[in-house]
Write a structure and sequence with these properties.
The chain is 10% helix and 42% strand. It is mostly beta strands. The chain has a 6-stranded mixed beta barrel with strand order 1-3-2-6-5-4. A hairpin with a 2-residue loop joins strand 4 and strand 5.
């Protein structure tokens, strides 16, 4: 997995007031911590952080180059959590968790679906049942995503976790009989009205989904 470099500066102030002033300058208050590391309050550039998470993938190695009053500290980490203001989508805070290359991680890894199912070409609908799979492995074996080929799925077929090859160094933490994608038959809502016969009312559309809302 690629390692991203992110510059940071230690900070001594805390609280809502100082945090607000940092954000007005294009900075983000953040924290670095870990099981064997002392918590370090830091500040990072919002623009630099957004470049790293722009593709939506959060499972990335980040080498923090921390300026601690002129002393440079290098810390290998991953994004543990970040907060976004729900209205204007501005970054509010970020947490970085220290990782060790010889200590296993348990992570939810995103699933990327590849291909156009045969069943969709025959009129079916591809159903995405799981977007992530939980795995455990050493950091060096951690994939950015898991690619799943759905091109051979026919109507009524599904792909389960047990059908995916993860490699010998990865342990799957979810139940292996869990389906992550399937192709379902399209449901027919109503018979067409007879010629010359006016429909009494607008037929109900079955299976229509609301548009997904942003978090």
């Amino acid at each position: 997995m690629e390692t991203n470099i992110l510059n940071a500066i230690t900070r001594e102030t805390s609280g809502k007031g100082p945090a607000r002033r940092l954000r007005q300058k294009g900075l983000i208050p953040a924290v670095f911590y870990g099981p064997k590391a002392e918590s370090i309050p830091i500040t990072i550039q919002s623009s630099d952080f957004l470049k790293i998470i722009r593709d939506g993938e959060e499972n990335k190695f980040i080498k923090l180059i921390i300026d601690n009053k002129g002393q440079k500290l290098e810390k290998l980490s991953m994004i543990k959590e970040f907060q976004i203001e729900p209205i204007d989508r501005k970054m509010l805070h970020a947490d970085f968790y220290e990782i060790s290359m010889d200590h296993k991680l348990t992570m939810d890894v995103p699933v990327h679906f590849k291909g156009q199912p045969v069943g969709v070409e025959d009129g079916g609908e591809l159903m995405h049942l799981r977007r992530e799979i939980r795995i455990s492995c050493l950091p060096g074996d951690l994939p950015e995503f898991i690619e799943v080929d759905v091109s051979q799925l026919k109507i009524g077929d599904s792909i389960k976790i047990q059908d995916i090859s993860f490699g010998e160094h990865i342990t799957v933490m979810d139940h292996t009989d869990t389906a992550i994608a399937s192709v379902a038959a399209t449901r027919v809502t109503a018979e067409p009205a007879a010629e010359g016969e006016a429909a009494a009312e607008q037929p109900e559309v079955i299976g229509k989904k609301d548009a997904e809302k942003e978090d």
